[in-house]
Specification:
476 residues, GMP Synthetase, Chain A, domain 3, alpha+beta, 4-stranded antiparallel beta sheet, 29% helix, 5-stranded mixed β-barrel
């Protein structure tokens, strides 16, 4: 839902109230933190039953209080009202009305007659809203100057937030500190610098993170700033039960403390661990004693190693470990862990299945083969089927002769018939068989004489060519 300021105009473009998370109607933005949906708003009360006359009013950063309506004003969710303050009046937004307020008060253990339930004076006028907005605009500058004063005084404290009262006469300074701080001089300096009444309020690290907000490591808004209302104690035992590494950088949240989400699944882990043996249990086998290393709770797998051979881990199922423990109770030694490990059969899980024709997710992990190997495979096919499919023509065959012209002027290529004898397939490198008629062997040294004669003839030709060139040059 959104207010009229945030709704779209006729052209479909959102208007935008530009309140930067502090929506005046309380129905959008981060100002609607911990909002409760009033599912009883459309239901009528029984006859003779008066509506509950206490309203829930929200202030900055989700701070909420309950206020009674002695004047019987007609109020609804989203109305800006002026309420009773510690001195003067404050301005807030009605966040809940009706019977759900009674439920919320019961949850927080607050009664309608309590002194904490103050009064609603009136609906805020335009003047009240203007003063309220002016005071809210001063908060950032007040916080900056307040930090300068703290650093000048040398106080070991951190000023996290400043909240002005609706009438602008009082400001509450929220701070965190590890030790007790004497801020009497700080209050005097702040009061003289801003001409306001000062209230110092110490908060914890978790409350500071809840007020300021932020994005967690999970990518969502912080639980404490959106829906978490109570802060349960978190210790390192929750991480140990879940088999998490005790790394403070990963287990700590933005507040510097352990993450609240460590408690979310803790009960599930505790229920699953009831069937597991204790980690200090020693398994006695024929090969020696084995001690616990680690476990996978939901797969029900445990890893053990021998005391003497700690470099080798053996994976066992929960049933196998319980079987070994029963044998040890009867003073019997179990078989070596190697034999138990061979009995485990793991089901192959398909991480990716090509259903609609996508490429494999690991296609870039396989190295590509070189082009040379592909060419060699094409030239020398290993399979007989591929060799039969390839043509038997030689590689370096080129078309010889120009295409002949026909009477119509069209060119037709002449096909040359290859009359050469094919080489034997079994041994392609073998020599040609000698003809049967020329069986007589040549005398030794005859081939050398023929080579020498060819060299002499070539040298004589070169000399004759050089003499002819010299004669022609002289005549010129």
């Amino acid at each position: 839902m959104s207010c009229s300021s945030c709704s779209t105009n006729k052209s479909g473009v959102p208007n935008g109230c530009k309140s930067n998370g502090n929506c005046a109607t309380g129905t959008c933005g981060s100002g609607n933190k911990l909002a409760v949906f009033d599912w009883l708003s459309n239901m009528t009360l029984p006859t003779g039953e008066a509506p509950f006359n206490v309203f829930e009013v929200r202030f900055k950063n989700g701070r909420k209080h309950f206020y009674k309506n002695p004047e019987n004003l007609t109020l609804s969710m989203g109305d800006v009202v002026a309420v009773e303050g510690s001195s003067g009046h404050d301005v807030g937004i009605v966040s809940l009305a009706g019977e759900l307020v009674r439920v919320q008060m019961k949850k927080r253990k607050i009664t309608a007659d309590s002194d904490d339930v103050k009064k609603i004076y009136r609906k805020a006028s335009q003047k009240d809203i203007d003063v309220w907005q002016t005071a809210r605009d001063r908060e950032q500058e007040t916080q900056r100057k307040g930090r300068e004063i703290i650093s000048r005084l040398g106080l070991k404290m951190k000023l996290s937030d400043v909240e002005y009262q609706g009438d602008g006469t009082k400001a509450t300074f929220y701070y965190t500190a590890d030790e007790r701080v004497d801020f009497r001089q700080l209050i005097r300096d702040l009061a003289s610098a801003f001409s306001i009444r000062v209230e110092m309020r110490q908060v914890g690290m978790r409350q500071e993170a809840a007020r300021l907000g932020g994005i967690g490591s999970c990518g969502r808004e912080l639980c404490c700033s959106t829906w978490l209302t109570d802060f349960r104690k978190v210790n390192t035992a929750a991480a140990r039960y879940q088999q998490l590494s005790l790394n403070p950088l990963k287990l700590a949240g933005q507040c510097g403390k352990l993450k609240c989400c460590l408690n979310y699944e803790l009960d599930t882990y505790l229920d699953a661990l009831q069937s597991f043996p204790k980690q200090d249990k020693v398994l006695k086998t024929e090969k020696g004693d084995a001690v616990f290393v680690k476990m996978d709770i939901f797969k029900k797998l445990l890893w053990y190693t021998y005391k003497e051979e700690s470099f080798k881990w053996y994976k066992l199922s929960l049933d196998q470990v319980q079987e070994i423990i029963e044998l040890n109770k009867n003073n019997e030694l179990a078989l070596p862990l190697e034999e138990y490990e061979l009995e485990i059969t793991e089901e192959v899980s398909v991480d990716f299945e090509n259903v609609v024709g996508q490429d494999s997710l690991t296609r870039f992990d396989v190295p590509k083969k070189g082009r040379k190997n592909n060419r060699r495979k094409k030239r020398n096919p290993t399979n007989k089927k591929q060799a039969d499919k390839q043509p038997s023509t030689p590689r370096n065959k080129k078309p010889q002769g120009k295409p002949a012209k026909t009477e119509g002027g069209q060119k037709t290529e002449k096909k040359r018939v290859d009359n050469r004898k094919p080489k034997p397939k079994n041994n392609p490198r073998s020599r040609k068989p000698k003809p049967e008629g020329n069986t007589a062997e040549k005398p030794q040294g005859q081939h050398k004489k023929q080579k020498n004669q060819r060299r002499k003839n070539n040298n004589q030709r070169k000399k004759n060519n050089n003499d002819n060139k010299d004669n022609t040059n002289n005549e010129k």
